């Protein structure tokens, strides 16, 4: 359940097909078509490029597409068979559907995921959440 202004869905895909992880065109086409598949509104063309890290096996493809709701990014590591996907949205979306599409696209064997709520401070003004927020009023404030 989301109590803020949307979600930040982090999907780490493992055991992915190396040919897909190193293919700039594949990542571009995925970022181009994926937003509409999860009811998001693409507002830019994907920006995708191959990169080389300091270590020989830290190369891959990175890409991002801006959506009206925020952004979707993909970072791949072909020599490690990994893809890391980040969907940052100001509206709720079907994370199960997003996971299924991306796992199939990369032929991933397994994954890890996390969902973070965005804009929790804005939730304080929502009438249905006022009681819940007051329950935490004695919690210490932590600055990062």
Annotation keywords:
alpha+beta, S-adenosylmethionine decarboxylase, 4 helices, 144 residues, 6-stranded antiparallel sheet, disordered C terminus
Helix-strand layout with pairing:
Layout: E1 7-14, H1 18-21, H2 24-37, E2 47-52, E3 59-67, E4 70-77, E5 82-89, H3 95-106, E6 110-117, H4 130-134
Antiparallel strand pairs: 1-5, 1-6, 2-3, 3-4, 4-5
Give a verbal description of the structure:
This protein is an alpha+beta fold. The protein is 24% helix and 33% strand. The chain has one domain (7-118): S-adenosylmethionine decarboxylase, CATH 3.60.90. The protein is built from four helices and six strands; from the N terminus they run E-H-H-E-E-E-E-H-E-H. The protein has a six-stranded antiparallel β-sheet with strand order 2-3-4-5-1-6, with helices on one face. The longest helix has 14 residues, at 24-37. Mean pLDDT is 84; it is low at 124-144.
Approximate strand percentage: 25-35%
> Which secondary-structure class do the elements indicate?
alpha+beta
List low-confidence stretches.
124-144
The CATH top-level class label: Alpha Beta
CATH topology: S-adenosylmethionine decarboxylase
Helix content: 10-25%
Sheet having the most strands: 6 strands, antiparallel
Going across the biggest sheet, name each strand in turn: 2-3-4-5-1-6
């Amino acid at each position: 359940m989301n109590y803020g202004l949307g979600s930040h869905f982090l999907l780490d895909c493992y055991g992915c097909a190396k040919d897909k992880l190193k293919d700039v065109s594949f990542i571009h086409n995925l970022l181009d078509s994926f937003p509409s598949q999860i009811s998001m509104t693409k507002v830019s063309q994907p920006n995708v490029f191959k990169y080389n890290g300091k270590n020989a096996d830290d190369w891959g493809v990175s890409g991002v597409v801006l959506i009206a709701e925020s952004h979707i990014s993909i970072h791949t590591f072909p020599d490690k068979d990994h893809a890391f996907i980040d969907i940052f949205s100001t509206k709720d979306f079907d994370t199960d559907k997003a996971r299924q599409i991306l796992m199939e696209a990369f032929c991933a064997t397994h994954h890890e995921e996390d969902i973070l709520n965005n804009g929790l401070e804005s939730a304080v003004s929502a009438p249905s959440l006022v009681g819940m927020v007051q329950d935490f009023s004695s919690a210490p404030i932590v600055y990062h």
